[in-house]
Amino acid sequence: MPPWIASFAFAAPAATFAVALLSLAEPGLRPRRVLAASKGATWAALLVAVAATVAVSLGGSVSGPLIGVGEIGFSIRLDALSTTMFLLVSFVGLVVVQFSRNYLDGDPRQGAFVGGLCLTLAAVTLLVLAGNLVHLVLAWIATSLALHRLLVFYGERPGALVAARKKFVTARLGDACLIGAALLLAMAFGTTDIARILEQSRALADGAVPAGIPAATLLLALAALLKSAQFPAHGWLPEVIETPTPVSALLHAGIINAGGFLVIRLADVMLLSMPSLYLLAVVGGFTALLGGMVMLTQTSIKVSLAWSTIAQMGFMLLQCGFGAFSLAVVHIVTHSLYKAHAFLSSGSVVELARARRSGPVEASLRGRDVLASLLLALALYASMGWLFGIEAQSAAIPALGAILIVGLSLLIARSMAGGTNAAVLGRGLAAAAGATVAYFVLQTAAIRLLSPTLPPVPEPGPVGLAIMALAVLTFSAVAILQIVAPALAAEPAWRAARVHLANGLYANALFDRLVGALKRPAAARS
After folding, report:
1. Crossing angle of helices 110-128/258-265, nearest 10°?
2. How confident is the model at residue 523 (pLDDT cuts 50, 70, 90)?
3. Which of 19, 171, 339, 443 is geometrically suited to a Cys-Cys bond with 118, CB 3.0 to 4.6 A?
4. Same domain? 299 vs 439
5. How far apart are CA 36 and CA 45, in angstroms?
6. What is the dihedral of CA 303, 306, 308, 311, to 10 degrees?
7. Residue partners of 126: CB distance under 8 A and separation at least 6
8. Rounded distance, CA 33 to CA 117, Å?
9. C-alpha span between 503 and 507 (Å, rounded)
10. Could you tell me the CA-to-CA distances from 214 to 46, 73, 134, 181, 236 in Å, in that order?
């Protein structure tokens, strides 16, 4: 495939950026031209994404020519990873923009909001298509600044301003880390072209690592952790509920998961310094556990969904830390589609939650039921793993599979609560079996699809094995705690723990003080 063909992908961000410019002329109520243009632009972006995917499938990966001077400018990289993310961003963006046509109908600044959505989409699209480091850094920063406009859309809401202020501080720290990493990588490899950097990194896998690479990978890891709302800089995400619901959905179109994308995009570089990957695994794993526990204590549907996102981003970075980059891509895609839908349908979820809360309280389980659910989940995973040849893969894959087992055991255990109803148990087992099969099918498909672009999962060393063992043990303990939680509801210690968990162990309160978020924003003062 000729390199110049890749440059046609610029049409997608150009179309949505044009809508943002048009919204400057029609920022108000029911802007007909803006609404019509946003529909056409988002559909055009999706069609370009489909065309790019077909082109890569038929002609292989390609990097477009640099539009700039020397090593500074913009260029498109089309491969299995970028086109997958391109499709995801375009599809979710189309759905969110169309949803917003009705959601904000009657708002006096509807045009400005749709323009803000399209501007953010343009920046994210440029990010996932970046073919060189300068392009990557500029799109990374532009995505954050465009999102900031949406976070403060309702400037009269103090909570929205607080969330935006904390996000702004966190984002600028992440920007500084990425800029530093880009400079170190450019000096180490003598180029800003991402394809050439990855090629040289593969050649260095068994050789001497240039000076500056360990520091660069550490900065990349920090940038990813900050971008994806990981502990202790996670507090802004649950507070984003003060913004319009479409913003929460749009976050999952390559924005909140941009940290994972950055690590995956530069996976070959990250493998040159395993301590940076271990940092991702430890912080991501802890955040996943914290987010999963806090989520269960929340009474607000949207806040609970936000904490779920924090946990899922932590697990995605845990996968990256283990070197399972293809699985992390699957996680990004599936979680983004699910969570965008969950936020857009959060109104109906509230009604469903009310109906469930008015029903019977979930019964507690006996110890033998917990053990039985774990054994059944293990049998499901082992049988499917044998069929898909898991024994021939890196130790990281069974470790992540063990975490899946404890999740499946939770699903099976809930079907055992309150008795041994065969129909309920059968549905629970069927759901667990379906999830297991889907996991292995998606895992196998992703590895085959992305193998030309991403490195294989590495064999872990002693430190890596220790981190994997710790992750499996802690996730198992938390899963068992969730299973037996109904029986602990009346225990004073558990009730006290719920209070602390509901407040996120107070890390967000400390962050509030550090950035001055507890001061009343100027717009909120009378």
Report:
1. 20
2. very low
3. 19
4. no
5. 14
6. -130
7. 13, 74, 135, 138, 139, 142
8. 15
9. 8
10. 38, 26, 20, 10, 29
Beta strands in 179-325 (DSSP E): none
Q: How far apart are CA 48 and CA 54, in angstroms?
A: 10
User: What's the 3-state SS for 437-488?
Assistant: HHHHHHHHHHHHHHCCCCCCCCCCCHHHHHHHHHHHHHHHHHHHHHHHHHHH
Q: How far apart are the first and last CA of the chain?
A: 61
Measured CA angle at 204 (ends 199, 209), to 5 deg:
125
Mark whether 328 and 225 lie in a shared domain: yes
| 224 lies in the same domain as 83 | no
Are residues 319 and 205 part of one domain?
Answer: yes
Contact indicator for 284, 229 with CB cutoff of 8 Å: no
Looking at residue 307, its pLDDT comes to 82
Range of the domain at 389: 363-488
Three-class secondary structure of residue 69 per DSSP: strand
Q: What pLDDT shows up at residue 342?
A: 79
User: Which tens digit of pLDDT belongs to each residue from 49-79?
Assistant: 999 999 998 888 888 888 888 888 899 999 9
Distance CA 62, CA 77 (A): 6
Measured CA to CA, the distance from residue 163 to residue 158 in angstroms comes to 9
Report the DSSP pairing between strands 77-78 and 72-74.
unpaired
Report if residue 143 sits inside a domain.
no
Contact 220, 181 (CB under 8 A): yes
The alpha-helical segments, DSSP class H, found in 345-454 are: 346-357, 367-387, 396-416, 422-450
Q: Assess whether 34 and 78 both reside in one domain.
A: yes
Answer yes or no: is 494 within a domain: no
- Residue pair 88/149 in contact (Cβ under 8 Å)? The answer is no
Tens-place pLDDT, residues 160-169: 788 788 888 8
Model confidence, pTM: 0.87
Among 177, 176, 174, 298, CA closest to 239: 298
Backbone dihedral region for residue 324 (phi beyond 0: left; psi -120 to 50: alpha; all else: beta)? beta
Q: Categorize the per-residue pLDDT at 517 as very low, low, confident or very high, splitting at 50, 70 and 90.
A: low
Question: In which element (H, E) is residue 67 found?
Answer: strand 67-69
SS3 label, residue 175: helix
Q: Which helix (H) or strand (E) holds 251?
A: none
Instruction: Find the Cα–Cα–Cα–Cα dihedral 307, 274, 448, 197, rounded to 10°.
Output: 110
> What pLDDT, on a 0 to 100 scale, did the predictor assign at position 357?
46
Phi then psi for residue 182, to 5 deg, are -65, -40
Q: Which residues contact 4 (CB under 8 A, 6 or more apart)?
A: 64, 65
Tell me: pLDDT of 367 over 60: no
pLDDT tens, position by position, 417-436: 655 566 766 777 777 777 77
Residue 199 lies in a domain: yes
| % of the chain with per-residue pLDDT over 90 | 31
How many distinct helices (H) and strands (E) make up the chain?
Answer: 21, 4
